[in-house]
UniProtKB/TrEMBL annotation, chains A, B:
GO terms for molecular function: 3'-5' exonuclease activity; DNA binding; DNA-directed DNA polymerase activity. Its main location: cytoplasm. The keyword GTP-binding does not apply. It comes from the Bacteria. InterPro entries: DNA_clamp_sf, DNA_polIII_beta, DNA_polIII_beta_C, DNA_polIII_beta_cen, DNA_polIII_beta_N. This is Beta sliding clamp.
C-alpha cells in the first residue's frame, strides 16, 4: 500500500470516520480505522465500526500501490489534524522488522516535514461493515433529513433501559417522511414532504418503511450531512433485518436498528382543543430561562397562568427558601383562563427546537397533553405533559 | 435600600465579584455578595470574600435610599445576566413578612418586565474585607502587571502541599518589577521596567517589596485588569502582615499572601552558556504538538538533537508499542552538537507563554538547566530542566 494525498482530505475524512471508533474497544482491532487504497480508481476509503455504528468515507488520492490495512485511529487522527496543509505520503513498509526494533506491520507517514511511523494491523482482522442485499433503495433529500433530525433527536430518551425510546422512529411513505421521538414525558414529531432531487429515482409505493434508529447513529448522520457540500442531494436508504444503511456521495453510515414496538404516539395528540394561544417564541424562551433560575430549586416546576382579559400569560415560581420570580408575556388567547404547570426543562427544550418566530400553544385542561407547534413553515408537533400544580 | 441601575452595570460587576464567592461556603453568608448603596455619592459597591480572596467593585447608580444588604450571589448573578438591557430597580422590602409566606429580609428586583424576590441576609454577618493601614501605596502600570502575570502564572505549582510554589513571587523595586513562578521542574521569570503613569505618585525607594501571592487570586486580577477600560492606568498596591491589596478605579482585590521562604531562583539560572540557538517559536511549537501525540505514550519525553552542520534541530520520540515520530526545524546554532531530552509538556507551555516570534535557547550540557527567552521585547526567562535520556 502506498498513496499520496492532501493533509486536508486525510484529516477531514479521518475525523468523520473516527466517530464510529469505540472509546473502549471490546477488541483491539476496533480501535483502528480500515484504510483501503485502490490504484485503479485512485480512491481511498476509510472505515470505522463499533459493531453497532459503522462509517465509511472515501476520497480521491494518488494511489501508487493498492492495499488494505488497519491503522490506529486516534493516533493517526491526532497527528494528521496537527500537520500543516500539503501533501502526505502513506506507505506500508516492506520489511517486517521496523525502526523501532519490533516486528509487525509498520506504516510510514511522510508529510512535507517530519516522518512518522505507526504500528498497524492486518486488514483481515477488521470486521466487515454490514451490507444490505435484495433491498431496493429509498431516496430522501438531505435537507429534509437534517430538518427532521433537528426537530426530533433532542426528545429521545437517554435512559438505556428504555431501549426503543433511545432512538428516533422513522416512517417513510411514498411522498412523506415522519420523524418521532419521545422519552415518555414529551413527544416531538416532524412531518415532511419528501421531495427527492430530480435526478434521483422516485420512491416506489411498495417501499414503505417504519424503523427505529439509535439517536447516537443519527447524531453522527446529522453532523455528516451538515458537513456535506450540497444539502439538495439524495441520500439512499437501505433497510433490512435489524440494519439500516444511509449512503450518499462517497459516504456511508450503517447502524443496527432498535428492536421493540414503538409507542403509538399519534393517539396521544388530542384531536381538538378548548384553548388556543399565539406567542412569540424567543420572548417565551428568554422569560423561561430567567424563571428557570428559581425553578432549579423547586423540582423544575413552572406555573403558567393564562389571562385572556390582559392578553398575556404569566410564568411564575415561588420557593419558600430562596424567593420568587414572575414574568408576563403578551399572547393572543382564545378560550378560558387556566393555570397549568410544566417541567420547565421540557418546555425550554421544545421551544428551542421549534423552527419559527411565532408559535401556537394548544390545550384542553391542566392535566391533559399540551401541543406546541410553529405557526407556518415546517410541520412539527411538540407535546408536553403538564405536571400537578402544588400550591 | 432602594436603587435604580442598568442591567449591564449590575451584571458586569456581579460577574466580576462572583469570582470571590466560594463554591462551597464554610458559612452561609459567604455565598452572598454584599451590596452597599450610598445615596450621597450615588455609588453602589459589591463585595465578595472567600476569607482568602476578596473582590470589591463599584459603579454609579441612582440611589434613592442608602443601605447595605447581603444578597445570594449565584441566584442574583444568574437572573441579572439573563435579563435584557434596560433599567433595574432593587428594593429592600419594609415588611418582614414576605410574599413567599416566610419571615426575613426580602429584596425585590424589578426589571422592565417581570418581578423577582430574593431572600437576603443582614449586612452585619458579612465579614469585613481586610484593609491595610499605615502602608504607603506602590504604583504599578496595569499593562506591565498583565504582561508579568501572563509570563509567570502558568509555571506555578498546582500541588497544594507545595504552599509557596502555588503562588507568584513578586519583587517590586523603585523602577523595576519582577515576577517569578516555579513548580520545581521549570521556572518562569519576567522582569519589567515599571513605568508608572505620569499622574500617579512616584514609588519611593523605601517601598521595596517581596511577596508571594496565590496564583488563584492573581488569575482573577489578570481577568479583572483585562476587562478594565484602560491598560495604562495605575494600580495601587498595599502590603502588610500577610495581606496584599490591589486597587484601581473602582475596583479592589485583596488576598492573603503565602508564607514561607521562596526558592532562591536566581542562582538556578546559569551565568554563561556553551551552546546558543535561535529558533522560530511557532515552528518549534507546532512540531512539538505533533510529536506530543507519541510522547503521550512515552512518559512525555521528547529527544532534541542539535545538528550544527545541518543548521537544524531534530525532535523525536520512539515508542516500542505504537511507533515513532521525528521532525526537524531550522535553527541558527553556535556550539557543539548534543542530544538532550525534555518533558514535552514543560517545553510546550514555556514556548506558548514566550511573547516573541523568534526565541533563543541556551544550554551547557544535557543535564543542566536550559534557558528559553524571547529575542527582543519583554525580558522573560524560562528555565526547563532536561530529563535523563533512556535509549
Amino acid at each position: 500500500m502506498k498513496l499520496v494525498c492532501t493533509q486536508s482530505d486525510l484529516s477531514t475524512n479521518l475525523s468523520l470516520t473516527s466517530r464510529a471508533v469505540p472509546s473502549r474497544p471490546t477488541h483491539p482491532v476496533l480501535a483502528n480505522v480500515l484504510l483501503n487504497a485502490d490504484a485503479e480508481t485512485n480512491q481511498v476509503s476509510l472505515t470505522a465500526f463499533d459493531l453497532s455504528l459503522g462509517i465509511r468515507t472515501s476520497f480521491t488520492a494518488e494511489v501508487l500501490e493498492s492495499g488494505t490495512i488497519a491503522l490506529p485511529a486516534k493516533l493517526l487522527n491526532d497527528i494528521t489534524s496537527r500537520l500543516n496543509d500539503g501533501e502526505i505520503t502513506l506507505e506500508e513498509e516492506a520489511t517486517s522488522v521496523d525502526d523501532v526494533g519490533g516486528e509487525g506491520i509498520i506504516v510510514t507517514l511522510t508529510p512535507e516535514s517530519g516522518r512518522y511511523q505507526l504500528r498497524a494491523m492486518g486488514a483481515e482482522e477488521f470486521p466487515e461493515l454490514p451490507t444490505i442485499q435484495d433491498s431496493q433503495a429509498l431516496y430522501l433529500s438531505a435537507e429534509v433529513l437534517i430538518e427532521g433530525l433537528r426537530g426530533s433527536l433532542f426528545a429521545t430518551s437517554a435512559d438505556e433501559t428504555k431501549q426503543v425510546l433511545t432512538g428516533v422512529h422513522l416512517k417513510v411513505q411514498k411522498d412523506t417522511l415522519e420523524f418521532a421521538a419521545t422519552d415518555g414525558h414529551r413527544l416531538a414529531v416532524v412531518e415532511s414532504t419528501n421531495v427527492s432531487p430530480e435526478d434521483a429515482p422516485k420512491n416506489d409505493t411498495a417501499n414503505e418503511l417504519e424503523v427505529t434508529v439509535p439517536a447516537k447513529a443519527l447524531r453522527e448522520l446529522e453532523k455528516m450531512l451538515a458537513h456535506s457540500s450540497s444539502s439538495e442531494e439524495a441520500v439512499a436508504l437501505y433497510f433490512d433485518q435489524g440494519q439500516i444503511v444511509f449512503e450518499w456521495q462517497h459516504q456511508r453510515l450503517t447502524s443496527r436498528t432498535l428492536e421493540g414496538q414503538y409507542p403509538a404516539y399519534r393517539q396521544l395528540i388530542p384531536a381538538s382543543f378548548e384553548r388556543d394561544l399565539a406567542l412569540d417564541r424567543k420572548q417565551f424562551l428568554s422569560a423561561l430561562e430567567r424563571i428557570a433560575v428559581f425553578a432549579d430549586q423547586k423540582n423544575n416546576v413552572v406555573k403558567v397562568s393564562i389571562d385572556s382579559a390582559a392578553d398575556e400569560i404569566t410564568l411564575s415560581v415561588e420557593s419558600q427558601d430562596i424567593g420568587s420570580g414572575r414574568e408576563s408575556i403578551p399572547a393572543q388567547i382564545s378560550g378560558e383562563d387556566i393555570d397549568i404547570a410544566f417541567n420547565i426543562k421540557y418546555l425550554m427544550e421544545g421551544l428551542k427546537a421549534l423552527p419559527a418566530t411565532e408559535i401556537v400553544m394548544q390545550l384542553n385542561s391542566n392535566l391533559t397533553p399540551v401541543i406546541f407547534s410553529p405557526s407556518g413553515g415546517l410541520k412539527m408537533t411538540y407535546l408536553a405533559m403538564p405536571v400537578q400544580l402544588r400550591e
